[in-house]
Amino acid sequence: MKDDNIFKDLTVLYEMALSIGQSLDLEKNCDNFLKILMARKNLSFASVWIREDKIIPQGEKNNLLLTYGKPRYFVRERIINECEQLRDFFQGRKYLPISYDNPYFRHFVHENNIKGGTYVIFPLADLGYLKLYTMQNQLRFFEEREINQLEKVMKKFAISLEGCLSHQKLVIEIAERKKAEQELSTLNETLAEKIEQEVTRSRQKDIILQRHARQAAMGEIINSIAHQWRQPLNSISLAASNILLDLELEEDPEEIKKSCDFILKLTEDMSNTITDFMDFFRHDKEKSEVLIEDIFQDIAGMLQAQLFSHNIMFTWQVEAGLRMVTYKKELQQILLNLITNSIQAFKDRSLLEKRVEARVHKDGSYIIELRDNAGGIPEEIIEKIFNPYFTTKEKGQGTGLGLSICKSIVEDSLRGEISVCNEGEGAFFRIKLPTDRDFLTA
Ligand SMILES: Nc1ncnc2c1ncn2[C@@H]1O[C@H](COP(=O)(O)OP(=O)(O)OP(=O)(O)O)[C@@H](O)[C@H]1O
Ligand SMILES: [Mg+2]
C-alpha cells in the first residue's frame, strides 16, 4: 500500500474517531459520526438500531428500535425483530455484508426504494446494530484493513451511544423528579391551604361551640333561677294582695309592716339566688382543697326547687371530712349537668320513688358515681351521648351540649375520665379524678 493511502486512511480514521462522542444527544452523536462515515466510504444510507430494553425499562430485548436513519426516505420500519440468524451470525464475526436481495436476511434489510446494492451490518457491542447501505453491488465492499480499523471505531461509537443513552435516562429521570417535586410542592401548597382552612373552620366551630355552651349554661342558670323564684314570687304576690286588702280594711299598720318585711326578706333571698348562680358560673382559676360534702350541699341548694317540684330525692354518700384538690366550680358544673339530665329523664315517668344518688370514695384516685332510677339510656344511643349537639330532646328543649361540656371539663381541666352505662333502673355515670398529688403536678 502506498504511503499516501496509509496517510489518507489514518486521516479518515482520525476524523471519524474525533466525530464520535461530541454530543450527548443520541441523534446528534449519530449524525456527527455517520455523516463523515457515509461521505468517506461513499454510503447511501445509514441507520442505527438499538434494543428496546436499552431505551425503555420494560422494553423487549429482541425488539430493535430505529434510533437514527438517514436519508429519511429510505426508512420503511421503525421497529424490527432481531432474528436468530442475525444473532448467530455475529458469533465471532466483525461485520456482515448482505446483498440487497438476500432472502435469508430479508426481514432485516428491506428499506424503501432499494433496487440493488449491498448492506453492511456492524454490531454495536450488545446495544444493537449499525446498518449501512451502498449502491455498489460488491460484497467485499470493505477491505480487511478497513474492517480492522472500523472495528475499533465501532467500539468507540458503541461506548459513546451507551453514554448518550445513560444521559438520556438521566435527563428523563431529572425531568420526572422535577415533575414529582413540582407535584409535591403543589400538593404541599394545597395541603397547607387545606390545613389552614380546616384550622380556621375548626376554630370557628370551637367559637360556636363555646358560644353555644355559654348559652346552654345561661339557659340552665335561668331555668334554675326560675325554679328558685317561683315559690317566693307567689309568696310576694300573695303578701302584696294582703297589704292591699289590709289597706282597704284599714287594718293595723303593724300587719302591713309585717307583710312588707316578709316581701323584703323574700326579695333579698331572690337576689342572693342570682348572686349564688352568677358566682357559680364564674369559673375558678385556682385549684383549691375543698370539702366534698360542701360541693353537694351547694348543688342541693341550687337545685332544691327543681328537685322539690318534681318530687325527686337527691342523696349523697361521702366519707365524713373527705377533701380533694380540684377546681370546685367546674366540678359542681359537671354534677349540676348530670343531675339536671336525671331530673329531665324523670319527666313523663310516674314512679313512686324518684331517686338520684351520688357516692364518692377515694381509691388512690377519687371516684364519683351518680345514678338515677329514671329508666336508663337506650343502648343504641349510649355511645353518642357525649358528642356535642347530640340530644334526644325536642327542638328548643336541649342543645345536646351538656355532656360534651362535662366530658371536656373532666378530661381537659380536671385531668380525669368520665364513663356511662345503664345499671339497675337507670343511668350510671362514673367520674374518675386523679389523686391530689397527680392533679397538682398536672
Ligand atoms: N340520666 C339520663 N338518663 C337518660 N338519658 C340521659 C341521661 N343523661 C343524658 N341522657 C341522654 O343523653 C342525651 C345528651 O345529654 P346532654 O346533656 O349532652 O344534652 P341534653 O340534655 O339533651 O341537652 P342540654 O344538656 O343542652 O339541655 C340526652 O338528650 C338524653 O337522651
Ligand atoms: Mg343535658
From TrEMBL:
The record, for Pfam families, names: HATPase_c, HisKA
Top-rank taxon: Bacteria
The protein's enzyme class: transferase
InterPro entries recorded: HATPase_C_sf, HATPase_dom, His_kinase_dom, HisK_dim/P_dom, HisK_dim/P_sf, Sig_transdc_His_kin-like_C
* Domain (Histidine kinase) ranges: 224-437
Is this entry keyworded Transferase?
yes
Swiss-Prot/TrEMBL keywords: ATP-binding, Coiled coil, Kinase, Nucleotide-binding, Phosphoprotein, Transferase, Two-component regulatory system
The EC number(s) attached to this protein equal 2.7.13.3
Which reaction is this enzyme known to catalyze? ATP + protein L-histidine = ADP + protein N-phospho-L-histidine
Coiled coil spans: 170-197
From the Swiss-Prot or TrEMBL record, what is one GO molecular function term? phosphorelay sensor kinase activity
The yes or no answer to whether the keyword Coiled coil is present is yes
What is this protein called in UniProt? histidine kinase
From which source organism is this entry?
Answer: Heliorestis convoluta
